[in-house]
Structures are given as structure tokens and as C-alpha cells.
Amino acid sequence: MKGFVFHGPGQSSWEDVPDPGVKEPTDAIVRVDTVTICGTDLHILKGDVPEVRPGTVLGHEAVGEIVEVGGDVRTVRPGDRVLVSCITACGRCRYCREGGYGQCRGGGGWILGHTIDGTQAEYVRVPHADLSVHPLPSALDGPDAVLLADIFPTAYEVGVLNGCVRPGDTVAVVGAGPIGLAAVATARLFAPERIVVVDLAASRLEAARSFGADAVAFAGESPEQLIADLTDGLGADVAIEAVGVPETFELCTRVVRPGGHVANVGVHGRPATLHLEELWIKNLTITTGLVDTRSTPTLLRMAAAGRLPTSSLVTHTFPLDAMEEAYDVFARAGDTGALKVVLGGPRHDVVAVPAV
């Protein structure tokens, strides 16, 4: 089969790789129909995630069909159409029993495209399949469903829920990439008074408005002042960091009000300064996190009911074997306008982000 293989920082290719097979009785083999590329994959290619060894097939999000299962798998069978979660859960360790699947100590957590071969291939082996794949509602097609493998649960759990968004809040989302836009969409479920989005790209700020942002600010033009003006000088109740660079994290700590929440979602490849000399007195709650995907069943039901704008995030689609081209388009989002690229099915490039 073919897969997209990481060979070291700046080196990758779509090439022949061995077909996966069942290794453990809890495994499932999925024929991949639809995949997407995550910002974390770009971090891996830059060398920001040293745990990923050369020779690893990348990817941790997919929709496909079960073709084989181990003898202990009970919830799915060959022929079932499933969503492959970005998080694998053993279901037995302390963290899994508490719903903290991202911290699984039983051979799970974020392993696909990280410590084992991932989903950007024609077939993928999914360990602990009973808790790590989700049967798909018939109402969801692949491009819609694949966005529920990672970005929507990540934005919802690590951003909105960790940030404790409540009715009437002012929410600042710093970064209007796919995670930031998914955070806007899911924060709206809690009826905040306003959502303010900060980014450097005019096209992404326009997309943020279509997803429900009440105000937008260019990162280089005093977003702190705008948020202060909107809140009578108090600051945002919740600041969601959705980029993963020191500047955006530090901006979040400056725009949040005393007693507020900073929810870091971005994947950081270098240190950020925590200005405790200024923050110690502000009673802030700062959270970090890897998604647990415990919300995925709920989000699947909401998407099937048309309550989540999943398809609005997809700006480019490619056939599966155009992986290298898709990576190039996604990595040059500032030039291409890419939000999410999806592979599988006929090609279709969207110029403008449709309104929600």
C-alpha cells in the first residue's frame, strides 16, 4: 500500500509501505476513505515533535471502513463505516476510567502518526478499536465526519470546556486557523456575550466572522485595546490560545481579566515566557491539554443534526494519492487560503469560506 512517511525534519514522501495487519486481539484494520492534515503534522515535519521517528506514517484522523478485526473486538465488525479518533483508549487504565483518554497509560493516548504508523495511508491499524473508532451516522459523509476526529473535540474540550466558557462571557480566540474557528463555533453553544478573534490574516478574520465572531482584530493593530474597549477595561473572561507560539500565549495572558481563564490549545515548539511577576496577583487559571475525545459521540450527533459547521472549514479537497500537493497547499495557508484540506474523493478547491 501507499502511505505518507516522515523521514526527518523537512523530509517526507508518499511511498510504498507494508500493509498493516492485526497484531493484538483488540486491533481493527481500517481501509481509509478520507483523511485530513493537522497543524500538528506540520509541527512534526518541522522537527518540533522529536518522539516521531523517521519511517513513521503520519496522520491521526480518518474515516474509513473496517476490513478486519481481532478476536476481542466487540463494537465494530468488517463492513462498518467508522471515524478513527485521533486518540486511542485502552479503557482500563486509571486515566481512561476517568475519561482522560489522552493520557492513557495502557498503550493509548496520541499514538497514531506519533509513536505508531498513522492514518495518512490506504490502510491503518487501530489498536483498542472498541473505544478508538466510532460508527458513523448515515447522515455524515467523509469530509464532514473527518473533522470530528480531532479539531472539533480539541477546540471544544481543550479550549471551550477547559476555559469554562459561560453565558454572557467575553471570549477572545487568538488564532483563526481551523482550531480557532472550531473554538468559535463550539463556544457559541454556551451563549457568550461576544467572541473576539485575533489573527494576522484578513481572510481568516473574514472566516471568523462567518463562524460567528462578533468582533475581529488584526494581531499587529492593538488587539488588547479593542478587547479592553469592549469590556470597559476589564478584559476577556476567557482567552483561547489556538496557534502555538510564544507571542500568542503571552497575548492571551495580557487580554484576560483578573479571575479569568487562559486555555492553551496550540502545540508549542519553543518556550513561552510566563510573566508571573505580573500574573501572580490576577487569580488566573491557565490550562493546557491534549484532547481526550470524550466528547466525540456528542459532537457526532450534533453534526448529524446539522448543528456544527464542519463542511464550512473545508477549503480544498484532493485525491488520497495527492498527499504531497495537499501538504504544500496546507503549509502555505497564507498564500493558498487553506483552512482544512481533505483527501479522498474528487478534487474541489474552494476560494471563499461559505457562511455558516
TrEMBL record:
Record's signal peptide: none
Under the heading InterPro entries, the entry gives: ADH-like_C, ADH-like_N, ADH_Zn_CS, ER, GroES-like_sf, NAD(P)-bd_dom_sf
The family database entries (PROSITE patterns) matched by this protein are listed as:
ADH_ZINC
Q: Which UniProt keywords apply?
A: Metal-binding, Oxidoreductase, Zinc
Which cofactor does this sequence's record say it needs? Zn(2+)
Q: Where is the Enoyl reductase (ER) domain?
A: 8-343
Q: Does this UniProt record's set of keywords contain Repeat?
A: no
State the residue spans of region: Disordered: 1-22
Matches recorded under Gene3D superfamilies:
Medium-chain alcohol dehydrogenases, catalytic domain, NAD(P)-binding Rossmann-like Domain
Family affiliation: Belongs to the zinc-containing alcohol dehydrogenase family.
Q: Which PANTHER family match?
A: NADP-DEPENDENT ISOPROPANOL DEHYDROGENASE, ZINC-TYPE ALCOHOL DEHYDROGENASE-LIKE
Q: What is this protein called?
A: Zinc-dependent alcohol dehydrogenase family protein
What is the organism lineage in this UniProt record?
Bacteria, Bacillati, Actinomycetota, Actinomycetes, Kitasatosporales
